[in-house]
């Protein structure tokens, strides 16, 4: 089939769960013989050409920044990208049998829905997250938040094949009445298998991700300071970039922890993997996650995780309490530090049980399991409704 994958970011120019999913999915579908186009915004120099094996990459103009100073998605960027998708499909929509897009930032989905009757492609949507009205209002304020909620509801109306990565958000899709089937995808792990746990040379907490307000990376610094009172020599390696990165660096300096906290920004993947394998634990204080690939990657190396309980956090679905990590009650220094101490005191036994947990769940957690479900949709033409 001729498939158009759509997301406004491309790995490795941006690093996140969605970018890695589309990077892997595009290459897997191409390897299975599909004709794959990746439609995104241009994030590279005009003279450069992104390399994605077997995939045609098209960068839309203009390449606007994703986030404002508060770390929220820019509405103008979403609108401009949606317009670019609309223009592309108006010109080239007949090229595609299927248009496969992330639901967010919504306007690309709406552009495809508007043109589908004319261009006659199937609509496939990955719903990483489905926000409540309350969260929309908190994120954008009462007025703009309600508009965002209504736009999200509008995106549920077109007939679509909906993929979802957590029970939390799949349940919301069904509750809100998405017009189409909902298929759960449980695997995003693209590694080559598990790795035997190693004993850390020194206790180090690990974080990797976009440093946005909802990731709550700033909570790590006071929690680390508190946990160090019970864990001798505890350090932190904090990877990633984003609007909160300068504040993180200031917080580390002001707390007098510059000699025990490393926050180098975005680094090569090999360094990330090495740091993760040697960590005491992954600490992910996010309040909002649609899945959390890094929790699974940690478990593959026998590294337990600490996540935070919350109504918007689907990462808790990946934690079996006391087996592959712990769920902190909040992101407060006391709660996060207490969870770190529990990991430290559990020692090698927790690393072994984390490794065993991954081994027992590796099939459902693998990228291959999700790709199989997606590929089956494309391989079985009769599973697609009539145009």
What features would you describe in this structure?
The protein contains twelve helices and 15 strands. The chain has 387 residues and is an alpha/beta fold. It folds into two domains: 2-190 and 366-383, Glycogen Phosphorylase B (Rossmann fold, 3-Layer(aba) Sandwich), CATH 3.40.50.2000; 204-365, Rossmann fold, CATH 3.40.50.2000. The strands form three sheets. The protein has a seven-stranded parallel beta sheet, sandwiched between helices. Residues 381-387 have low confidence and may be disordered.
- What would the average pLDDT be, to the nearest integer? 93
The amount of helix comes to 40-55%
CATH topology of the largest domain: Rossmann fold
Structural class: alpha/beta
The CATH homologous superfamily of the largest domain is named Glycogen Phosphorylase B
N-to-C series of helices and strands:
EHEEHEHEHHEHEEHEHEHEEHEEEHH
Which architecture of the largest domain would the CATH scheme give at its second level? 3-Layer(aba) Sandwich
What portion of the residues fall into strands of 2 or more residues? 15-25%
The best one-word shape is globular
What is the radius of gyration computed over CA atoms, rounded to a whole number of angstroms?
Answer: 21 Å
Q: Figure out the total of helices.
A: 12
Identify the CATH class of the largest domain. Answer: Alpha Beta
Describe the sheet with the most strands. 7 strands, parallel
């Amino acid at each position: 089939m001729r498939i158009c994958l759509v997301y406004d970011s491309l790995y490795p120019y941006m690093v996140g769960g969605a970018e890695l999913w589309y990077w892997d999915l595009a290459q897997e579908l191409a390897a299975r013989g599909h004709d794959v186009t990746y439609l995104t915004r241009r994030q590279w120099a005009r003279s450069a050409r992104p390399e994605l094996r077997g995939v045609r990459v098209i960068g839309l103009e203009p390449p606007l920044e994703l986030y404002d100073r508060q770390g929220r998605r820019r509405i103008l960027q979403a609108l401009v990208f949606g317009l670019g998708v609309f223009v592309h499909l108006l010109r080239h929509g007949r090229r595609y049998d299927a248009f496969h897009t992330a639901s967010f930032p919504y306007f690309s989905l709406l552009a495809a829905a508007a043109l589908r009757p004319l261009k006659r492609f199937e609509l496939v949507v990955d719903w990483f997250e489905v926000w409540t009205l309350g969260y929309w209002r908190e994120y954008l304020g009462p007025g703009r938040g309600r508009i965002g909620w209504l736009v999200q509801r509008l995106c549920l109306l077109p007939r679509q094949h909906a993929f979802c990565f957590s029970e939390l958000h799949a349940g919301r899709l069904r509750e809100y009445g998405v017009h189409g089937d909902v298929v759960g995808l449980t695997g995003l792990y693209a590694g080559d298998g598990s790795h035997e746990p190693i004993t850390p040379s020194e206790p180090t907490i690990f974080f990797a991700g976009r440093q946005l307000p909802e990731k709550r990376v700033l909570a790590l610094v006071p929690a680390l300071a508190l946990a160090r009172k019970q864990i001798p020599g505890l350090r932190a390696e904090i990877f990633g970039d984003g609007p909160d990165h300068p504040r993180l660096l200031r917080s580390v300096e002001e707390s007098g922890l510059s000699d025990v906290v490393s926050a180098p920004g975005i680094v090569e993947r090999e360094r990330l993997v090495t740091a993760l394998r040697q960590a005491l634990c992954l600490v992910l204080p996010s309040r909002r996650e649609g899945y959390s690939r890094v929790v699974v990657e940690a478990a593959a190396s026998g590294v337990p995780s600490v996540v935070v309980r919350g109504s918007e956090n689907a990462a808790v679905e990946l934690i079996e309490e006391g087996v592959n990590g712990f769920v902190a009650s909040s992101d407060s220094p006391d709660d996060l530090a207490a969870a770190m101490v529990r990991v430290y005191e559990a020692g090698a036994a927790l690393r072994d049980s984390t490794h065993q947990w991954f081994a027992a769940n590796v099939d459902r957690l693998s990228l291959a399991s999700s790709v199989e479900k997606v590929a089956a949709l494309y391989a079985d033409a009769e599973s697609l409704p009539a145009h």
